[in-house]
Design brief:
alpha+beta, five-stranded mixed beta barrel
Length: 323
């Protein structure tokens, strides 16, 4: 089955601000935790950068509390260290003069970002945003207006709003009506560009619990691309379909599906509390694939401590035991 690593290293846009290899590692938070804990979201320029602090100049406030024109960032609000190297602890590594969107949380008289690699999205020289919608090791190249609109929507929903601008739902519907794009293998440039927009659409739908027709999701679940399938599964799990646990379980059992996505499906069964699938998971575990299903994090990346099953077998066993 298709593994994640070739896609992550060759095609998926990744910001590796963690610098050279260190023995300091952490468990990277998923985007839901990053946004859910943040109290502010906006676009800033980095006017001063040091290993222990950042000074940011506000360019545009977008959602939540407005921290003011100048912001000092001195800590991390979702950092769970796995190991710590003497003299090489977690550090800020954004370049002075760069621009990025930040999810910030007040911490005493200063502010914090989630981790050294999460809680911000850099703006590249090509005026594209290196955007996170799932977890920071899986990023998409997104136009700034789309990034701002969808991330504002996600922020508002995770902070209690019952909905957001109707144009977001229209965007999701429009993108998912198009032919399914992809990123793995010999996909065309057009297909890869469409993949990024559909990635944004599916992940935003998952955050906002937007209903997606079953026949639409099936087209994405059938695409032999782990990242397409993972986003479709996350949208499925967040929806209100009465049969979603059954559909997730059938995906786990589908030997034609990619191993990373099958692991994701098992973990989503645990996440939604599908106790009716407990015995079925345990019965299937001995036959489950032992193929590679990690998040594609390189061995020397400090995010290597992120918890995610290494195979569908591990995911199925874990989900079955914990339900």
């Amino acid at each position: 089955m298709t593994a994640l690593r070739p896609f992550l290293l060759a095609l998926f846009a990744i910001l590796l601000h963690a610098g050279p290899a260190r023995a300091t590692t952490w468990d990277e938070p998923w985007h839901r935790e990053v946004v859910g804990q943040a109290t502010s979201f906006g676009l800033y320029e980095v006017v001063k950068s040091a290993p222990d602090a950042l000074v940011l100049k506000r360019v545009k406030h977008i959602a939540g509390t407005d921290p003011g024109a100048t912001v000092q960032v001195k800590s991390f609000y979702a950092l769970r260290l796995g190991s710590l190297s003497g003299g090489h602890g977690p550090e800020f590594r954004l370049q002075q003069g760069s621009r990025a969107y930040f999810h910030l949380k007040q911490a005493g008289d200063a502010w914090a970002i989630a981790t050294p690699t999460a809680g911000y999205a850099g703006v590249g020289s090509e005026s594209k945003v290196y955007a996170t919608y799932r977890i920071s090791v899986h990023q998409a190249l997104v136009d700034p207006p789309l990034y701002e609109d969808t991330q504002r929507c996600i922020f508002e929903v995770l902070h209690g709003a019952k909905g957001c601008d109707p144009k977001i739902a229209a965007f999701v519907r429009g993108e998912l009506e198009k032919p399914v794009g992809g990123i793995v293998g010999g996909e065309s440039a057009e297909s890869r560009a469409e993949f990024f927009r559909q990635h944004v659409a599916l992940e935003t739908a998952a955050f906002t619990h937007q209903a997606i027709p079953a026949e639409t999701l099936e087209r994405f679940l059938a695409k032999p691309d782990p990242h397409v399938q993972m986003s479709a599964l996350r949208a499925l799990a967040a929806g209100a379909r009465a049969d979603k646990a059954e559909r997730l379980m059938r995906f786990v059992e589908d030997e034609q599906a990619t191993d990373p996505a099958r692991a994701m499906a098992a973990m989503l069964l645990k996440e939604i509390g599908a106790r009716e699938m407990k015995q079925r998971l345990l019965d299937y575990a001995p036959r489950a694939s032992e193929g590679e299903a990690g998040l594609g994090i390189a061995l020397m990346d400090p995010r290597i401590g992120t918890r995610f099953p290494h195979s569908p077998k591990e995911a199925v066993t874990m989900a079955g035991e914990q339900l």
